[in-house]
Amino acid sequence: MKTNSNLISIKLVFLLFVFSFGCQAGNFDKGLLFSIERPGTPVSYIFGSIHSGDPRVLAFSDRLRETLSSTDQFMMEIKMDQSVIFQSLTGLWLMDGRKLPDVVGERLYQMVVEAGEQAGMPEMTFTYMKPWVVMMLFSLPPGNYQQIVDVELMKMAATSGQRVIGLESIQEQFDVFDKMSISDQKILLENTLKNYPLLSKQFETLFDAYLDRDLARLQQIADKQMQQQTGARQAIERLMERLLDDRNQRMLERMLPEIENRANFIVVGALHLPGEKGLLTLLEQQGFNISVVE
């Protein structure tokens, strides 16, 4: 498993699928691509991605390609470019002279080392990493996370001459995790390590629901997985409020002025879409009509 800041950034977002809970799909049970319409404004679109490089999700439909090409601007959670990688280089590491075992204790550190050996990562990989960053490394099964849905769509938009902008900065995403207490970081790290052997199976279940464009089933699976995390539930709840609800509000505030003025194609993780505090409902509350495209 290659360790770099681009990979870590992608894994931050994927936690939505691993740990999300507590929102209902509501009126948006099916679909991944939705139109955003209101009289007097250009038609925009929002697409729920899965941050994966699996060929099945990279086989974009003609409808999606045509919709993307019909818009003027492309928005995504973070604009993935070299500046993001550069900015994140220092965000992954303990910078105060401590090492990971100094922060999490020897018992948990040995769990990290053992899991790393099974995943083909040497101990030196983790020595100076923040606890939550280590959690990221064990939050996805091995795979291709360089050529992912979000980045491939961004490339298509850039090639067609569309302006590409990010709804957040990499530092804002890092702050979601950096502001966790060390206690919560340790709880979530240990929970992730204990569930790591089950990760591939859990991911495939989620992946099947995503391929069926079934937001309701995605949420049901996430809820079920949450119910199984009894020892970490409160820590996950605290994280999810910042990772989903707070970020949805921030992204909404930043996309609204853009939607008012031009046709946008917006890409966010799929579990940002449904629920009472999801982006589709939040956009409806702003007077937009939300319809399923596919």
Sum this structure up briefly.
The chain is an alpha/beta fold and 294 residues long. The chain has helices at residues 5-19, 55-58, 62-69, 82-88, 100-104, 106-119, 131-137, 149-159, 170-178, 182-195, 199-211, 215-227, 233-261, 279-285; strands at residues 33-37, 44-49, 73-76, 163-166, 264-269, 289-292.
Supply the key terms.
single chain; 294 residues; alpha/beta; 6-stranded mixed sheet; 14 helices; 53% helix; globular; disordered N terminus
Report on this model:
The chain has 294 residues and is of the alpha/beta class. The protein has one domain. Strands 4-3-5-2-1-6 form a 6-stranded mixed β-sheet, with helices on both faces. β1 and β2 form a beta hairpin. α11 runs antiparallel to α12. The protein starts with a helix and ends with a strand.
Topology:
Elements lengths: L4 H15 L13 E5 L6 E6 L5 H4 L3 H8 L3 E4 L5 H7 L11 H5 L1 H14 L11 H7 L11 H11 L3 E4 L3 H9 L3 H14 L3 H13 L3 H13 L5 H29 L2 E6 L9 H7 L3 E4 L2
Parallel strand pairs: 2-5, 3-4, 3-5
Antiparallel strand pairs: 1-2, 1-6
Q: Which sequence of SSEs, written as H and E, runs from N to C?
A: HEEHHEHHHHHEHHHHHEHE
- Summarize the amount of helix as a percent range: 40-55%
Percent in strands = 5-15%
What is the total number of structural domains? 1
Number of strands: 6
- Overall spatial form: globular
Number of helices: 14
Structural class of the secondary structure composition?
A: alpha/beta
Are there runs of 5+ residues with pLDDT below 50, and where?
A: 1-6, 8-25
Widest beta sheet: strand line-up? 4-3-5-2-1-6
Largest sheet: 6 strands, mixed
Average pLDDT for all residues: 86
Cα gyration radius (Å):
19 Å
N-end to C-end Cα span? 34 Å
